[in-house]
Input
Amino acid sequence: IGANTWQSSGAQPTPATAAGLQTFVIELPNQEALATIKERLVKHGVAMKERDGEIDVADPWQNKIRLKVK
Output
């Protein structure tokens, strides 16, 4: 996982027309692992979208993170 490690605090999301990371996928070993992460997201009030057995969330810069079972 890559991150902007210098002076990103308070940075705005990248404009839609700019080059850069927009989406990445984290593949989990099984449905139980996905359910565990979903529980944690709900517990912490993280906005998410569920579709076709996958979960999409966004980081603070609005990059989409897709969580799915291999």
Q: What stands out?
A: Strands lie at 23-28, 49-51, 54-58, 64-69. The CA atoms of residues 46 and 57 lie 8 Å apart.
